[in-house]
Amino acid sequence: MAGGEFALIEQLRSRLGKAGKGVRLGIGDDAAWLDPAGRQLVATMDTLVADRHFFPDVRPYDLAWKALAVNLSDLAAMGAEARWCLLSLALPPREAGYGAWMEDFMAGWRALAERHDITLVGGDTVATDGPLTLSVTALGLVDQSVMRRDAARPGDMVWVTGSLGDAAAALDLALVERGREGQGFPCSAAQREALEARRLRPMPRLEFGEAAAACGVCCAMDCSDGFLADLSHILEASGVHAQIALDALPLSRELMDLAGEDPERWQRWPLTGGDDYELILCAPPALAAPLRQAAAAQSLRLTAVGRILPTALDMPAAVTMTWRDRVMPLPTTWGHVHAL
Amino acid sequence: MAGGEFALIEQLRSRLGKAGKGVRLGIGDDAAWLDPAGRQLVATMDTLVADRHFFPDVRPYDLAWKALAVNLSDLAAMGAEARWCLLSLALPPREAGYGAWMEDFMAGWRALAERHDITLVGGDTVATDGPLTLSVTALGLVDQSVMRRDAARPGDMVWVTGSLGDAAAALDLALVERGREGQGFPCSAAQREALEARRLRPMPRLEFGEAAAACGVCCAMDCSDGFLADLSHILEASGVHAQIALDALPLSRELMDLAGEDPERWQRWPLTGGDDYELILCAPPALAAPLRQAAAAQSLRLTAVGRILPTALDMPAAVTMTWRDRVMPLPTTWGHVHAL
Questions:
Q1: Do the domain assignments include residue A334?
Q2: What are residue B240's phi and psi, to 5 degrees?
């Protein structure tokens, strides 16, 4: 980026990198100097590539929000307090330059960062001849232990925060609109807008992640690749089985209206759709009351969707799924078109 | 990367992410869980893009080394002990796949990481339609204070570790060889090989950075964009001036033979060439003896190249440069072709 790089870094520093909690030296030196204040550290890094993880015509505001949100969601799943981020931007040549683009990008970043008191403390800006590529590293702090994938135990209840499937349904519409492979369906402008907001600006469940860890929950994961795929990571890591009621999955009012009684749509959107950035938690029934209380205190929906069972030899898959109390076959594909 | 992504992550985990100091939970969960053991944190992130920061035909071994080294060099400049890294790989489609490529890449990463006891604790692998792009986040620890750019004071001596300019000279040869703009010069195969090794596998001065901070040095920066450009960042941040003896800059035996008495070559390579990944330090004369001792203990060359002066109004530039004790004009361009 030559001279432009320093101008860009200065812009990021002055707008997003001002003094923050535990920041002893932020953007502008060889590295940031941060004070964990005797606590433990949690670190994650995610990369988004244009046309793979987002549409190239995305509004910079939404792109910044999402790039930050997907990383914060990982910290939330560990039960960490989010603190600091580093951002790497690889920018392709752009006729109009990046002046207005960066303004909008920084506004989106700030909107989410300020909610959670997160400071940008470093990163890199480089030029690329390829698609716009962003990497974000998020750093958080925990006092005691973290929630992890390998800690589900038979008898645990399986919980999900918020609602699932909105982003996947919105992606279907966005793909069809762009002449790509997706599944169209009729919906109102208001429904569309509600779904699209969930797709573009996911809400990392940081506050609830911390509260759940404080309640004593040991097992959690963020739901980003689709509930079934992510749950299966927990089951595999923990060596357990789960029984899940498909019809118990939490749907937004809009998606409930659209999915109706069609189990195929329930499978496509909330079960395997992805990009929800909700939390999946597994916890003993004794924690049900405090968890419900913590969620209520945050006005966050929290839904029990199934149980963890011991693995048995005669179970062909890790998940037994029911629909209206009847066992139904698992979908053949769990994957999803990531994050566009 | 679909299924390939998980295989790749497992490969990275099992080869580069095994148990390490302070790693309570490494690759395989939503985020890594790390123990700073009550110390302060230092964090940096750098991104390399094919054909911008490295030749696309680079050996994966060397690419991994360099991507790690440039980040560790930033930690060294702060005086930090390097501990943990996160790696994001955006990989373009490749006919031969990434099996053998990754083997070589991991070997290069490991060669440098094991020298400094650094564990890979997270990251991301994604597909891209653009050039191969790598982002690395490096995390280190300090006990007390860090060395910083804005702490140079009048009277300080200016020091440089190792030698400067080899990478820039090697880049000249590599560019000419590829039919790009560079400055060819005759050299022997042995000279070429020595220069090229410095270009491909820079040695981050982590051990010396820690020792210098322990000696009480407050001001340092890593020399990556060219000595003059990087020194000017120190001078600007500290609000001071410097007098530098161009002919005192430390050159390798090979580069000394090639640069000879030609000040134009001294300007081109050690002064403005870049990609040295040495440390520039500014420290009061009282620290000269302990710094020399620390360097000697590590068999590392350490050279005094000038002095920090107060800024005076009649000084047109931040640096007064001499050659054989005579003031000479500064070069008109300080930039460099980055890191290819």
A1: no
A2: -135, 175
Q: How large is the ipTM?
A: 0.94
For residue range A202-240, what is the model confidence (pLDDT) as tens digits?
999 999 999 999 999 999 999 999 999 999 999 999 999
Provide the shortest C-alpha distance from residue B118 to chain A (in Å). 15
Considering the domain architecture, whether residues B113 and B162 belong to the same structural domain is answered as no
Is residue B14, in this structure, part of any structural domain at all? yes
Domain that holds residue B89: 2-142
Q: Helices A189-200 & A60-78, crossing angle to 10 degrees?
A: 60
User: Measured between alpha carbons, how far is A195 from A166 in angstroms, rounded to an integer?
Assistant: 5
**B chain contacts of residue A135, beta-carbon cutoff 8 Å:** 45, 47, 88, 124, 135
Q: State whether B273 and B293 are in the same domain.
A: yes
The token pair that represents B176 in the structure block? 């000419």
Contacts of A129 in chain B (CB under 8 A): 49, 51-52, 130-131
Helices (H), A202-338: 206-215, 227-238, 253-259, 263-266, 288-297
Residue type present at position B74: D
Set of chain B residues whose Cβ sits within 8 Å of the Cβ of A6:
none
CATH classification of the domain holding A271: 3.90.650.10
Q: Total domain count for chain A? A: 2
Give the C-alpha separation, A112 to A126, whole Å: 24
**Partners of residue B34 in chain A, C-beta under 8 Å:** 40-43
Alpha helices (H) along chain B: 2-16, 60-78, 99-115, 166-177, 189-200, 206-215, 227-238, 253-259, 263-266, 288-297
A·B CB contacts under 8 A: 208
* Range B160-187 average pLDDT: 93
Are A133 and B90 inside 8 Å of each other by CB?
Answer: yes
Q: By CA distance, what is B70's nearest residue in A?
A: A30
Which residues in chain A have Cβ-Cβ distances shorter than 8 Å to B130?
49, 92, 128-131, 133
What residues 104-163 of chain A have any CB closer than 8 A to a CB of chain B? 121-124, 126-131, 133, 135, 137-140, 142, 146, 148-150
Cα-Cα-Cα-Cα dihedral sign, residues B245, B246, B249, B251: negative
Single residue among A142, A164, A191 that ends a domain in this structure: A142
In a domain, B107, yes or no: yes
Query: How far off is chain A from B145, nearest CA to CA, in Å?
Result: 9
Whether residues B168 and B136 share a domain: the answer is: no
Where a domain ends, among B142, B168, B197?
Answer: B142
pLDDT digits (tens, 9 = 90+) for A251-287: 999 999 999 999 999 999 999 999 999 999 999 999 9
pLDDT band at B20 (very low <50, low <70, confident <90, very high): confident
Same domain, B265 and B163: yes
